[in-house]
Write a structure and sequence with these properties.
- Helix 1 crosses helix 10 (189-203) and helix 6 (102-116) packs across helix 7 (122-131).
- The chain has ten helices and no strands.
- It is mainly α.
- The protein has helices at 7-19, 28-37, 44-56, 65-73, 76-90, 102-116, 122-131, 151-164, 168-179, 189-203.
């Protein structure tokens, strides 16, 4: 498998990111908000704020926020249980795409998928990324696209890409410098660098396999 986590793909991905006028801090401030929100558990306040962020990331359309909020409330207890179970499995290590496996994650993704209940995995990927940014990579049909892959297969693809990359340490430091602010302690370099490189690879005509 060709590794897409390269300086060339990273630089192209940054160009695309800039052209799209996405957050110049690479969502550092958003991850800080998300981290703080989880401090009191996955309750109704957390869920309402999560929906607001999902709305701003265009993950809910065409459904109204009120409907997603109502649907999600029914799964909060189950989500909290699955979240706690994952934290217990990784013990003192913070869970990331490096130290988890899909078997430990599939129930969280399953519950997330049931909330919007659509075929596309975009909503569930963004929701799960907001819950566990270092664990779940985001998908976006416009700049990433996964062709006919399932999200599970895409997750395995991203994990393999990251683990086998010889450039991840260098690219992590470059991204850290580009953020240009005090970086949140659990900033998801593993999924963000991978995401940027895959965006760049698509622009550079390197297909995801």
């Amino acid at each position: 498998m060709r590794n897409l986590i390269t300086i060339q793909n990273f630089n192209t991905g940054i160009e695309v990111w800039t052209q799209k006028k996405w957050d110049s801090d690479f969502h550092n401030s958003t991850y800080r908000i998300l981290s703080n929100l989880k401090q009191n558990g996955l309750g109704e306040h957390w869920w309402i704020e999560m929906v607001n962020i999902l709305w701003s990331w265009r993950a809910i359309r065409p459904l109204p926020k009120s409907e997603i909020i109502l649907r999600g409330k029914a799964y909060l207890a189950e989500l909290q249980g699955e979240y706690n179970s994952l934290l217990a499995r990784t013990e003192e290590k913070k869970p990331s795409i490096e130290n988890t496996d899909w078997k430990a994650l599939q129930n969280i993704f399953r519950v997330a998928s049931k909330i919007k209940n659509v075929k596309s995995p975009v909503f569930a990927s963004k929701f799960c990324h907001f819950l566990l940014p270092n664990v779940f990579p985001v998908i976006d049909q416009e700049v990433i696209g996964i062709n006919n892959m399932t999200y599970e297969n895409y997750w395995h693809f991203c994990q393999t890409q990251w683990l086998q990359s010889n450039e991840k340490t260098k690219l992590t430091e470059i991204l850290k410098g580009r953020i240009g602010d005090t970086v949140v302690d659990d900033y998801p370099y593993c999924t963000k660098v991978t995401e940027i490189c895959i965006i760049g690879s698509k622009t550079n005509n390197s297909s995801i396999r």
